[in-house]
Amino acid sequence: MYPKTFIALVSLFLGASTAAPQATLTAPLAPDAKFALMALRSASEVHFARFSAAKSSLFLHLPSQNASCDAGDADYATFYLRDGGLYLFAASATPQQLFADRSGMGQGKLGYTTGAQPAPRNAERTCFELDENNDLTLNGAGFLACPNSIDGAWSVWVSAGFAQPAGNEGCLGISVRAVEVSEPNGCLYTE
């Protein structure tokens, strides 16, 4: 009797679970999408933190970007991709393009330049991409977040084989997810 009851319950459960709605991933962003970037690292202080831009660098949990924005203050940075380059969105300002220096000297430095300003020596600018889950990589490389940066923020680096880039301590590997912004606020971020 027990085995028949058990089998009936298992069959009922399996039937119900396969009929339940299945979780679906977010559709890939359109090529011209404007998006925020969000850190993913379960059970950490940076999980779901949005990226900020200031002083030619990227941060998590930065209290203020001090950016000049078209629609008032912005508490996170807005980005877009074009031809493999990652840019800070600015509808009415000079373009600001991200770069990464994964050399031994840069150790994964992630930053941005403004206008015609050249990228630092050894910098990469055109290998950023979003995968089918809208996760950002730089030519397949992930990212790190390191605590104790300016104003108590976490600095963001590209993973380049250095667990503690530039002498930082307590760095965590993070995934970076792009989340579409329906009403982007164009900003010129500080250099």
Explained architecture:
The chain is built from 1 helix and 14 strands, in the order H-E-E-E-E-E-E-E-E-E-E-E-E-E-E. It has one helix spanning 2-19; strands at 35-40, 51-54, 57-60, 68-69, 79-82, 85-88, 96-101, 109-114, 128-130, 136-138, 143-146, 154-158, 172-180, 187-188. The strands form 4 sheets. The protein has a 6-stranded antiparallel beta sheet with strand order 1-13-11-12-3-2, with no helix packed on it. Strand 6 and strand 7 (96-101) form a beta hairpin. The model is unreliable at 1-24 (pLDDT under 50).
Rg: 21 Å
Q: What ranges have pLDDT less than 50 throughout 5 or more consecutive residues?
A: 1-24
In DSSP terms (H or I, runs of 4 or more residues), the helix count works out at 1
The helix/strand series, from N terminus to C terminus, equals: HEEEEEEEEEEEEEE
Major beta sheet summary: 6 strands, antiparallel
Strand adjacency order, main sheet: 1-13-11-12-3-2
Percent strand? 25-35%
Structural class determined from secondary elements: mainly beta
Question: How many beta strands in the DSSP annotation?
Answer: 14
List the helices and strands and how they pair.
Elements: H1 2-19, E1 35-40, E2 51-54, E3 57-60, E4 68-69, E5 79-82, E6 85-88, E7 96-101, E8 109-114, E9 128-130, E10 136-138, E11 143-146, E12 154-158, E13 172-180, E14 187-188
Antiparallel strand pairs: 1-13, 2-3, 3-12, 4-14, 5-6, 6-7, 7-8, 9-10, 11-12, 11-13
